[in-house]
Structures are given as C-alpha cells and as structure tokens.
C-alpha cells in the first residue's frame, strides 16, 4: 500500500474543542482536505463535505459502499495470474446540492461578502452544521444555516436541513435542490486512457421518475453491471407563498422552490435523500426500495432523524469514549478518530470497508489489510456488530479467494490484497499477492471477535470455514527444511520497503497463529469441520507446522531480523534529511528492498500483536534497532511504534507517535487527506492509547491491563466491551480504576498487571499505577524522521 | 527474458545437407518459420524470407538495424525509475516485392498448379534462391527463378535477380517491382491500445522521387523522430520489346515492366535496393546516400554483388568453419548457426544487435545480454571486427547508462536490460533492472576481445571507460558485512525463475571479475584512467571487494546454492510431465521465485564461464544437483548445459544438449521461431562445440584446449582466430591435431591438456586424445525435461 506525502502542508488552524471539529472560516486552499474531514458516512452511504451549493469544490464525492466500476489493468510485461481488471469506487449521483439564488444572484462563497462562514462537525450529534452570513454582490444579505446528516439508523438515508433568513432587506429566493450524475471527475491517477475512460461519465441513465415531493433516478455502470437508485424528497417550511417545480433529465433532476422573504423571515427546506444499489435486483425493485426509504425518512421527520442519530451516538460513546486530561489536542483527535472509524464501519453490512471509508477515492476505494488489521480490533471492542458484519463480508468472498488460491497453485483460500468486491485487483505482486499475511490478519480478526465478544455464532456461521481455508493456504505456502524447521519463503510482510523475503518474522508468527486457531476451531466444531473435509491428520499437520515455524534471530546483535538476512543488509544512506518525501518517490524498489530501511512497523508490529513471543530484553533491543531504520512512509506505522514505545517504557516517544497517528488527517501529515481519511491510522491511534498506555491485551481467556501514563497526560479513561460487559478504565498519575458503569449485574474478570481480579457493577476497583522503566535509552530515528514532539496545548497548535 | 513454447511443432522436413537449408516444396502452414529461417541480413539491413510476390505471408518484414518507434509503457501501479517509453523495431518499406502477372493472372502459390517450388538458403554463397514451375489457372506455364541477397560488402544494398521463362506457350508478362510502406502489421502482442496505435502505420511519408530506373522514398517515424530512405533501381534483360513505367505515391512506389515471351524466352530483371536511416542527417542527405548506394550497386553489377558476397563468406568460413563427421544433422545446424550469427552482427556497425538479429520482431527487436554473453564470444573468435563494432556501440551509450545509474541511486553506469538505442525499456524490474549481471557481461566481452585478439586499441578508445564505469556500479551495488565479506543483495542472476536474490554466485563471480578487470585496465592505462578520475584508492577498493566477494556454499549437500538459501527452498512439484509449456505460462512468478526450480543455466553458466572457480568434484556435484531442477524454459540454457556435461564427462548428454541448442530454430523447439531466430542459442551451439568438446578456453595468456569427443561424432574440426593466427583444431577418436593452415609464417602458443606447445604454419601438432570419465552417474532432469536424444542420421530426422 503506497503513501504519498506532498510535504507537510499545515492546515489553517481548526480550533481544539473536545466534541467537534470546527472551521471558523472557509479556506478555499484546503477545500480538498476539509471535504474529507467533514465527510459524513454510515458505511453504506458517504457524502464528502462538499459545500451545499456544489461549487467551489475540490473533489465532489457521493459514494455507495462497494459500488464500483471496472477498468482494464494494462501491463507492459504481463505475467501469469496477474489480475486483468481493476475496480474503482464510483462517484454516484450527488444529492447534496442546494443551489441558492438571492434575487437572481447565485450564492457562492467566492463572490460577494462573506461575513461569517463556519462549518462544524458535531461528533456527538453526528451532523455537519454550517452557518453563513453573506451579502450578495448586489448588497442583499442572507443568513444560511444548513445541517447535513447521513443516518446511522436509516441506512439508506441522508438528509439536509437548509434554512435561509433574509437580513435587512426583503429578498426573492430560488432554491434549486438537485440530483446530479456524472459530475466532472477529479484528475485520475492513471496513465492509461482506458482507465480514465472508465471513470469519465461512468453511469448510464436508466430512468427518472418525478414523484410527489421529488425525483427518483436510476443509473447503471457500463462494465461492472451494477445498478443504483437515488431519490430526493422535500419538505418546505415558509410563512409566505412559494412554488415548487420538479424537472428530471437523464443526468440531473431538480426541485425548484421559489419564494420571497421579508427581513427576519426564513425559508426552511428539509431534503431527504435515499440511495440503493444492487448487482442483482431489478430496476423496479431498486426504485421501490429508494421510494420506501424516502417514505420512512419523511415518517421519521427531520427531528426524528436528528434525535435517533444522537441516540445512536450516545450509545456508541457510552461504550467507546476516551477522555484525555491534559492533552486537549489528543482528546479531540481521538474522538474524531473514533467517529470516523464508526462512520466507515457502522452500516457497511456485508460489504467491504475501504481504507478511506467512504470519504474519498484514494486507493480507488479498495479495502486492504488495514481493515482486519487495524479497524476491526477497535470495532470489535466498541461496536461488535459492525465488526461481525465486516467479517461476514469477507467470508462471503471465500469462493473468489479459493479461485485465487487455485490460480496461484495453492490450497485453501487466498484473499485479495486490494479489492472492492473480493476479486484480486492488485497489479504489483511483490506488494500485493506476495503479502499473504493478509489471510492471517483476517483469521486473527475472526479469532479476536470470538474471544472479545464471547460470541461463538460468527465462527459457526462462517468463521470456521475461513480459518480452515486460510490454514490450508498456509500449509501449502510453507515447507519443512531437511532439519524439520518450517519456512515461508518469498513472501512480503507489512514493511513494503522489504518485499519478497524468506521467513518474515511477522508473517511466520501470524501463519502459526492462523494454523493453531484453525486447529483449535476444528476441535471446537468437529462435526462441522468434517463437512469441510478436515481430517485429524490435516489439523495435526497445522499444529506441527506452527510448532516448527522458523523465527530468524541474529545472535551477534541480539535482535530479530525482520526476515532472513535482514540485519546483514546494507544500511540506507540518508542523503538529504530535509527531503521528507517518501523514499518510494525518490528511490526504486530495487534499492529499497535490499537495504535495512523500513517503511512501516513490521517486526515492531509483530511485537505489538505477539507480546508473549518476545522477552522484555528482546523487545527493548528490537525496538531500538528498528527505530533507527524505520522511516514511517506509511500511515500504518506510528500507532504500532507508539504501542511498543509504551511497552518498552519510552512514554514520551509513545505519546509523540500517538499524536502522529491520531492527527494524520487533522494535520494532513501525509499530504493526501484530500483523497480521503486514513481510517486505519485513526483506528490505530485508539488502539495505541488502549494497548499502549492502557496496556490492554487479551490472551484468549482474560482481558489483561498493564497501564502506564506519560507525564503530559494527567488522566486517561477509556471504555470497551468485553464479553457483554462495558468496562471503563481510568488511569491517573498514581491510580488505576476499573469499573462497569451502569451495569449493576455485570462482572468481568481482569488481569491487572499480575493480579487476577473480578470487576462488578457494584463498584470500581482501584489499584496503584505502576511505573515502567525503560531498559535502554530512548531510541533514535533516521535523520528527519523523528516524530514531531506532541504539542498538547491548543494555542501552540493553532 | 521470456520464452513461449507453444508445444513442439515439428516442421515439415528440411533435408539435411551440409551447406544449405532447402525447402523442397512450399509449406504454407510453416510460412512464419521459414520466413525467419530464410531471412537475409548483414546486420544493418534485414529481409525476412517472404515470398517475392508479397503474398501469402505470415509476417512481412524489412528491418533496418536500430530503426525503431517509441510507444508508451503503461503501468497499473507504477514505481520510481520505471521506464516510461518502450521501443519497437519497425517494419520499414518493403522492397522485396516482385508481383508477376502471367497473361493478367497474378502469380500466387495458392492458385494454379505448382509443379515445383523450392527455396534454398546457400550458406556459402549468402543468397536465397527460389525455383518455381507454375501453371496458371488459365493453363499458362512459367518457370520463375529468383535469387535474393543482402550484401555483406555493400552495407546499404540488397538485390534480387528475378527471371521468368515461358514454357510451352507464349505469354504476356507484367512484372510490378514495388516499394511498400506501412504494410498491415502482424498481431501486436500488447493489450495497450497505444502500443498498437504506435505500430499501426508507423511511418509518415516525407517524399517520393522517381529517378531514372526506379524510385527513392523517404519516411519518418512519428514519435522517435527517425527518418529512413528506401530506393530501388532496375536492370531489365529481355530479347524482345518491353516497356517500363514508374509510379510513386506516399506509401508505395511501383516500377512496371511489360513484355511478351515466346516459349523458351526469358525476362530477367535485376532489382537493386538501398536503404539508409538517420536520427540527425537531413532528408536530402539521406536521399543522396541511398541514391549513391544504388549507383554503387549498379556499378558492381549483379554478378559483382554475388561474387563479392561469396568472397566475403569464403573468408569467413576460412576462419570459422566447423566440420562434424558422423552427425550430418549437427553439421548443417552448426553452419546454419554460424551463418545467421554472422548475418546478425557482420555490419551492424555501431548499432546494437537484437536478440533476433534482423529476422523478426520478437522481443520488439531489443538487444539483451544475449549479445555480449553468447554472440560476441563467437564473433570475437571468428569475425573480430564485428565484435569490436558491437562493443563500440555499447560504449557509445555510456551517457545513457550513467543517467540510468544515477536514477537508480548508483554510481558509474547501468546499461539497459533491454533496449534498441541504449535507453532502458524493461518494464518488469525483477527480471530487468535487477539483472545487473548484464554490466559484467559487457565488461567480460571487452576483456575477451582484448585477450583473444591481442588488440589493445578498443580498450584505449572506449573499453577502459566501460570497465571503469561498470566497476563503479558494482562497488556502489555491493557492500561489506560486519565480518568484511562483500555481498550483492537483491539482484537477479541469469535464472529468471529465481529473481531478486542475495549473493547469486554467477553475479558475484561476474562482479568480481569486472572489478579486477577494471583495476587491471587502470594499471595498464594510468594516464587515461586519471582523466576518468580513477584514484589508486578507488582501484584498490575494487580489488578489495573482488577479493572479499562472498560465494555461498552448502556444506551439508556439498553444492553451491545458486544464491543464498536456494538449496533450502521447497522443491517444485511437477504435476503434469506431459505439459511442456514453460512454467511461467502456468505458474505465477511468486511461486517460481521461492522454489528450487531453474529456468535456465545459472550456477551451471557460472561453471562454464569460471572453470577455475570450481573443483572437478564441485562441478560434478553441482551439475548433478542443478540438472534435476532445470527446466530449460529459456533458449539460453542448453548450450551451457552442453558445455558442463562435456566437462563433467557426460558426453552423450552434452551431445543431446548441443543438438537442442543448434536445432532451436531448424526444429522450432521453442515454438516461436516465427518471431525470429534465437541468435544467442545458435551462437551458444558453436560455443558448446568449441568449449565443450573442444575444451577451448582462454586464461588471459594462452589458448587452452582439452578436447574430447562423444561416441556419435567421428571427427570434429573447428577454426578460430587467436591473436592474429587462424587456428584449426581437429579431433578424431584418438588424436588431436592443431595447425595454422595457409599461414607459413604464423605461430600460436597453446596449452593442450597440460602440455604447453607452439603451433606454427610449418606443420600440424598431433597428440593423442584423452578420454574423460565422469565422477558421478549421468544426471537426470525434471519429468519431461530431458533433452531429446541427438538423432544424427538424416533419414531419422526427416
């Protein structure tokens, strides 16, 4: 997975506030970034934070989860098994547009006088609000207030409340509420004319139906054969007379409302939007589905949608909120992170979750190991139903994964490195096909779900089969040498600057875990396993391979090479520490692969995910070794580094990395927030807080905690779900408090440090905080690659 | 470099004759192959063996050395340093066409009655002859005899003698002699529409000039900006009246000759063709250049061209001929090989030589390591001027190679893996950029030239700079580990089924040789080296690295892993021995790379090129080990395996491999002779005879010989040039004879087995042949991959 960092481009300050992200005045130079930051989504439907009036914009974006178009993948030199067809998330019919004309002058932030322009993403309310006070070039003043939401409770529905108030003079208003299809696309990142062609006007009009209060339009893609429907309906509230007209053409539909306002009078329009798509259902069925969603939305009413949105989020925050005293910057960033991770996954429901959620078309909207590796751990601990649905989607693609494995000459199932619908679309195999750890990441997510929720039903319905098929994959991928050690050769681990290697420690550990998990699951479900053809010989072979797995170790240096020979490779020469572009933009893969330079946590991630596989001394030495060689050209790195820094007692460094992970988008640290948010980094930030400072882990039986706290944070509390209980952990400078707030009858077994204890709803358990001393001095990073020191104070940031 | 083997498609028998390749009757199903086999070329101008009348054809082909068009290289996932522009040899203006109408009926082998149709490539005369006896559908009978040549002595000139005789009835003949540009291309092997576009009508008309006896036409390419000129001129010999007309349009020109013949009368037309191209010279200059070449050809006359062609070849065969008694199949194949290698290189003169010569557009006409690695050793020993010119071309691309090295973050010069003009165009870096051994192959060719010819001038003029810049490349590519051993990591050796590896033995040995050769050359030319900026520190560092080079060795198995860990990898499972398609067409690179399966001689090639780096025992064990794992999906393999089989005493196996190398095109063993001949395999066959059975090598001081002979060959003689002398070696069942025929005043020092002796022109030296006993049993090959047993008898073959 590639990163592009166009140089840190610090955004105009967004004030540090605990429960919202607010832009006090519109900044046209960072429109692309704010469109991503202010994106609303429920995982099924996503709206970028484009301005209501459509223009100016950087990237207009309306997305339906997994609604994609195909395009060819051309190779100058092809190879057997290369995917032939790419997939790209399509910008579908845009229902956000509300064009306002004030006495015939279009409202546009670039013209006239903008007295006020504030946007505010409310993390508790789940709405995007906008307040505008504008004087038209002709001198007419209006106040515009809009509120936009994408409903968590009405999966197919979004809504806009749009209110205009005349100030000072009477005005004639025309409000054009639109659906627009095939908007001019942003620049396509492809040299191939056929790719651009596939994404230029991707949708073919099927039908347009003007209904009572709006329009329903159907379109389909040319290649992928998917059909979508978008509908809008309106409520108009105004004291005086108004007229409404509807019009619809193949690629646009318009509801026009005209009225006049005296000073102080208001026009208030509620626009209900509904979307649906299907690869199989008929056009009438889709049309009716959208019409029904509109009916349900009208029935709920605007306030009903707002209220249920708030209730949904109250419930979420009750299970997931984090409080950080002493670091308001992190406080805001972590809530922002949680909110967007929830938005990405909440209602994706049997569709894949993209690495950018539905906030942009970066990575073509594809899902990667980001989701199972970084996002699902958070969702499993805070919104387990969303995690279960994401895993059900993976399982639903098993047939494609089996076909892919067969193409590759392997047994079992090989899930795709990047995809929308489950078909492999990765066009560079050393950083795609070869990164087989994805399969174990998926298996781990299933295991975590079962262990954290205590819910066995997912394993029964589909998890067992995934575990079995991935175990089969691993057994066919590995082999025993003549001394009986089990090896995985020619694979790529998480670090994409070291590809196609032998015995990547992370991958080998993950494969062994996958094999053992499958064998254990088979033992739990012997009947069902037999129907999958699993024999005792087969599951014994899985255990044998896991037992014999080879983990390279460099005795001279006392560190684990992340793969065979790694610690023998040449060191990277950092020639220009001022140049902070990713190395991949200024050096060929050839050079990166053969040197000791690490794009992202790999062995360090292995230490995060396998705390018991390393002694404290090994952990300290390994972290020291890899810190010197890790450039963090991937947004998937800082969170893992934060966790291991915390575990090795480098709390200040852990705090710095945590800031980097959490602020990746609020500060646009990789220069590509414009293309969508880094959902996995945001999830990783929460993981880093809870696993790093909270010291949380599960060992399959118990929830374990080894809390610690950096000096800059006065108090940290977090919440998570553990086998039905909602656990709250609060850490202060000298105490740890565990409780089950509001659950008088619940209880949970915890291992706090080395003390086994049971927390009940009756009251909190309080223990002294233990300090953690590092075994080695604080490690250093490559020139120019140290994380920015965490700045916790709001005014320093802005 | 990839191979595609469409299943052995045995051709209709071509009779086994010592000095020609003859097709007794036309076979339309193998037209594509015979067009390649019957191609004529002098290295500058190449004509595929298309029928005179243009149709039917498989691939019309007229090529000018290094005359190419650019096309884009699209990557679905690009990377830093990826070449952006491809190059393809262009099918230029076709001057071969002689359309004959007999009483208005076009002569076409598909219509009427073909009483005789014989084609014959005369390896001594250097001409392609054709004899036809045809009865038109209307019953008119003619005999057509044509002779075609591409002149070795007139570089820009080709000629056709075309004679028609009326048989039985009087006939009216119309002969249309043409130049045709932008012929419909054969199917383009690319999914990218822009590549097809670049090669569809690649030439833009510049001018057409009708001259006295013909036409000169100029065209230029759209992208690469090259201009070419083609001209034709005619002599007409007929007893009766005839008329001649000329016509020219942008993409074709026609000279029409009309006459009538009484039975027994003949029309004889000599067509002179001349070609030229330039990237820099003006259009008038090119037009004049071609006109001058036509004038020179007319001045020489047809017989003059034929005679000088024969004289040129007599001289060549006098230095290069091989005689093989007892194996007429091999006799023919080796002469065919020598002839085509000469055709590829004779007059390429400061242009690159393509892997297919000028016989087809396979591999887009690119040059690879094939040339320096396999072709130049032959040319250096038999036609050293051609070798010197090819090396001068390489040196002329040094600036591009330096730029490429800089792009890759390396010092010195990195020559392109595949190119026409010196710009890297390889689009798959693991089997392109990473195959750095090419640079040492080039350095080795310079060294061999100096040592074999004794001529220092090439080193002075350009070789020293190549040696210095490639040594600099290697020093920046390698590094010392903490124990002082020098490693080359992440490179690809000859075996393309094992790519991007550490410490490939072949590459490490080649790099060390390159470094030492550069240091030695610097010591020979201290002044000149200083102007290249070489210090004593620098050349000392080269020697140090060469001295410290790491060569992996598996002590347990007693063999050299071809790269680190190779002997630890999983074995390939050969599931279907009947499926002889190349593995790369049915397995992904991912699988091939991580297993012990070898596409082509790699460690075995190292043993061929570095006989002193291995003991006899190591050689025997290594050969045995790699034979079991080598599938020969590359045509570059069999010759090296033949040499090592001979050195390890497996003479019958050596003989089998020799047949495979020599018959690669005459038997179309890789199923792609249609796309052009495998020049390196043909050259390798000669190398295999001379190095394998002849036991020839040079150690920098002496020519060494350790002859042996397989049972099936009664007598083998070969010739080569050694420091000005023409050495002839003759091997029979019990004797070795060395002589300098026809050079009374010459002498040469030889090491025959372990006897140092001086051969003079006065008489031959005769010594007993020593037998060679293998240390191990005959090795085996993977299922279905054993070479066909050599069939030496002509009637068995046909």
Features:
homodimer; 798 residues; alpha+beta; Beta-galactosidase, Chain A, domain 5; nine-stranded antiparallel β-sheet; five-stranded antiparallel β-sheet; 31% helix; 24% strand; disordered N terminus
The chain pair forming the largest interface, with residue counts per chain, is:
A-B, 53 and 56 residues
The biggest sheet of chain A, with number of strands, parallel, antiparallel or mixed sense and barrel status, is:
9 strands, antiparallel
What is the averaged pLDDT score of chain A? 95
Number of helices of chain A: 19
Strands across the major sheet of chain A, in which order? 1-9-10-11-12-19-16-15-14
* End-to-end gap of chain A: 32 Å
Label the CATH architecture of the domain at 20-318 in chain A. Answer: Distorted Sandwich
- The low-confidence runs of chain A, each spanning 5 or more residues with pLDDT under 50, are 1-12
Tally of strands of chain A = 32
Q: Any idea of the CATH topology of the domain at 20-318 in chain A?
A: Beta-galactosidase, Chain A, domain 5
Q: How much helical structure, as a percent, in the residues of chain A?
A: 25-40%
Task: Tell me the name of the CATH class of the domain at 20-318 in chain A.
Answer: Mainly Beta
- Binned strand content of chain A: 15-25%
Shape of chain A: globular
Q: Roughly how many Å is the radius of gyration of chain A?
A: 27 Å
- Oligomer type: homodimer
């Amino acid at each position: 997975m590639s990163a592009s960092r166009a140089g840190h481009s610090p955004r105009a300050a967004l004030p540090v506030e605990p429960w919202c992200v607010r832009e006090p005045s519109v900044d046209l130079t960072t429109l692309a970034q704010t469109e991503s930051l202010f994106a609303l989504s429920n995982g099924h439907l996503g709206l970028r934070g484009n301005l209501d009036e459509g223009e100016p914009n950087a990237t207009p974006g309306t997305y339906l989860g997994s609604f994609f178009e195909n395009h060819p993948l051309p190779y100058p030199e092809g190879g057997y098994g290369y995917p032939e067809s790419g997939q790209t998330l399509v910008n579908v019919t845009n229902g956000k547009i509300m064009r306002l004309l004030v006495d015939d002058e279009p409202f546009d932030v670039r013209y006239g006088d903008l007295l006020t322009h504030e946007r505010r993403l409310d993390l508790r309310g789940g709405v995007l609000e906008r307040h505008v006070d504008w004087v038209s070039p002709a001198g007419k003043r209006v106040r515009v207030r809009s509120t936009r939401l994408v409903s968590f409770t009405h999966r197919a529905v979004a809504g806009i409340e749009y209110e205009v108030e005349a100030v000072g003079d009477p005005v004639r208003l025309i409000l054009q509420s639109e659906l627009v299809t095939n908007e001019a696309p942003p620049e396509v990142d492809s040299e191939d004319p056929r790719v651009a062609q596939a994404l230029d006007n991707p949708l073919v009009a099927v039908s347009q139906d003007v209904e009572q209060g709006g329009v329903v339009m159907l379109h389909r893609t040319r290649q992928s054969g998917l059909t979508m429907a978008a509908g809008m309906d309106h409520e108009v509230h105004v004291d005086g007379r108004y007229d409404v007209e509807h019009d619809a053409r193949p690629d646009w539909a318009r509801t026009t409302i005209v009225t006049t306002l005296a000073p102080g009078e208001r026009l208030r329009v509620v626009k209900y939007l509904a979307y649906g798509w299907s690869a199989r259902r008929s056009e009438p069925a889709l049309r009716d589905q959208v019409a029904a969603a509109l009916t349900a939305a009208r029935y709920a009413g605007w306030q009903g949608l707002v209220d249920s949105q708030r209730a949904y989020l109250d419930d979420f925050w009750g299970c997931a909120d984090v409080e950080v005293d002493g670091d308001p910057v992190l406080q805001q960033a972590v809530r922002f992170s949680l909110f967007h991770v929830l938005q990405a996954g909440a209602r994706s429901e049997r569709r894949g979750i993209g690495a950018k959620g539905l906030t942009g078309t970066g990575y073509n909207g594809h899902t990667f190991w980001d989701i199972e590796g970084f996002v699902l751990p958070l969702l499993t601990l805070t919104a387990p139903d969303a995690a279960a649905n994401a895993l059900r989607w993976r399982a639903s693609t098993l047939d494609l994964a089996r076909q892919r494995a067969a193409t590759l000459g392997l047994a079992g199932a090989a899930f795709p490195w990047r995809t929308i619908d489950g078909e492999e679309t990765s066009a560079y195999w050393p950083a795609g096909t070869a990164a087989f750890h994805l399969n174990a990441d998926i298996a781990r997510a299933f295991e975590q779900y079962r262990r954290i929720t205590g819910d066995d039903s997912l394993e029964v319905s589909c998890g067992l089969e995934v575990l079995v098929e991935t175990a089969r994959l691993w057994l066919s991928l590995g082999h025993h040498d003549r001394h009986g050690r089990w090896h995985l050769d020619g694979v790529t681990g998480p670090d994409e600057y070291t590809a196609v290697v032998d015995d990547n420690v992370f991958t080998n550990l993950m494969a062994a875990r996958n094999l053992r998990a499958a064998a254990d699951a088979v033992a739990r479900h012997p009947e069902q396993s037999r129907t999958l053809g699993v024999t005792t010989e087969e599951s014994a072979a899985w255990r044998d391979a896991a037992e014999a797995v080879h983990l390279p170790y460099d005795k001279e240096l006392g560190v684990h090479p992340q793969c065979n020979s790694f610690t023998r490779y040449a060191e990277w020469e950092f020639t220009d520490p001022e140049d902070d572009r990713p190395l991949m933009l200024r050096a060929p893969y050839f050079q990166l692969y053969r040197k000791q330079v690490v794009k992202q946590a790999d062995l360090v991630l292995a230490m995060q995910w396998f705390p018991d596989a390393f002694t404290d001394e090994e952990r300290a030495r390994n972290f020291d070794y890899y810190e010197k060689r890790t450039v963090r050209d991937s947004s998937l790195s800082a969170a893992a580094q934060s966790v291991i820094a915390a575990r090795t007692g480098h709390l200040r460094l852990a705090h710095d990395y945590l800031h980097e992970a959490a602020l990746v988008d609020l500060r646009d640290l990789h220069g590509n927030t414009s293309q969508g948010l880094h959902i996995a980094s945001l999830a990783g930030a929460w993981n880093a807080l809870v696993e790093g400072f909270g010291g949380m882990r599960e060992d399959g039986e118990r929830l374990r905690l080894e809390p610690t706290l950096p000096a800059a944070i006065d108090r940290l509390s977090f919440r998570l779900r553990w086998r039905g209980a909602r656990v709250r952990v609060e850490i202060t400078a000298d105490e740890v408090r565990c409780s089950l707030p509001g659950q008088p009858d619940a209880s949970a077994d915890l291992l706090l440090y080395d003390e086994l204890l049971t927390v009940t709803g009756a009251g909190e358990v309080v223990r002294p905080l233990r300090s953690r001393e590092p075994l080695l001095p604080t490690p250093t990073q490559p020139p120019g690659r140290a994380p920015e020191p965490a700045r916790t104070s709001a005014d320093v940031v802005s």
